[in-house]
Amino acid sequence: MAAIIQIIFATIFILEFLFGNLLNGFIALVNFVNWVQRRTISPVDQIITALTISRLVQLWLVQINILIFLIHQVKMTEIVVRVINIAWVVTNHFNLWISTKLSIFYLLKIVNFSSSIFLYLKWRTRHVVSVTLMMSLAFLVLNIIVINTHIDVWVELNVRIMPYNFSSRNSTLFLKHLLFTNSIFASIPFAVSLVAFFLLIFSLWKHEKKMCNNARGSRDSNTKAHIKALKTGLAFLSLYAIFLLSLVINVCSIELQENYMIFLFSLFTGIAFSLFHSYILILGNTKLRQASLSVLWWMRCRPKDVRSSGS
Predict the structure, then answer these.
(1) Where is this chain's protein located in or outside the cell (predicted)?
(2) CB within 8 Å of 170: residues ≥ 6 apart
(3) Cα 41 from Cα 60, distance rounded (Å)
(4) pTM of this structure
(5) Which residues, 6+ apart, have CB-to-CB distance to 285 below 8 Å?
(6) Tens digit of pLDDT for each residue in 103-129?
(7) Domain count within the chain
(8) Among the listed residues 235, 80, 55, 76, the one whose alpha carbon sits nearest the alpha carbon of residue 167
(9) 202: in domain
């Protein structure tokens, strides 16, 4: 049974790894080519490119983790455990917070409030999103400190007494604390993105009310921008909520299943979240969507061209 589960996990990871590299590599390539052609790159493309790079790094780091857990050829020493967990915390932090940075950018670019504070933030959009990412580093440092504290306690109770064993009681509590800690810190950017989403809804409501008072029934460009941002935001938050829910389920059920399977499942859900969000970014971005359609059209027409030339 364990061998079958490992085969299933390995298959899932291979598919996620291939599609993750394909989608994120495609986004990075399109933005890079556009940057070279125009000799400039827009702020939103900068954020999306940074997000895709962080996700590519995360994919390759997770691949190393999967090889460690499935092949069992690396001795799980204290240093290995510490490096694996910190690498996951760092890459997942930038993955979530750059996504949140994108939500803040769309909010400040689209929403129009009369507040002087908001107008100042809107005027300094680039500075605001950059400062937000820099301030998030405080949460990253705190997350690493907490994770290292859990590892120190686990080492004191477990590793110095017996070999590394995922099925031990101490390791069960250790993984439970890790998942709970990561869930708490992952919920912070989710809360920020949720606030941005509700502010978009409130802004759209005010804008629609203003349009009705002006007796304009047709949708203007600002309304369309609101709706487009809300669709993308809703899809992103839905995936984010599923990701957080999976972490909570892992924490609650960790004592009922094989611990290393729980840890692998948490990695897979994190990759799946990034994978589907990258797909949403392609659909929601006109340039990326047109480039993907061009690639699909080229792939569909090329075999016909090859057959016609061969005949």
Answers:
(1) Membrane
(2) 154, 157, 158
(3) 26
(4) 0.82
(5) 48
(6) 898 888 888 777 788 888 888 888 888
(7) 1
(8) 76
(9) yes
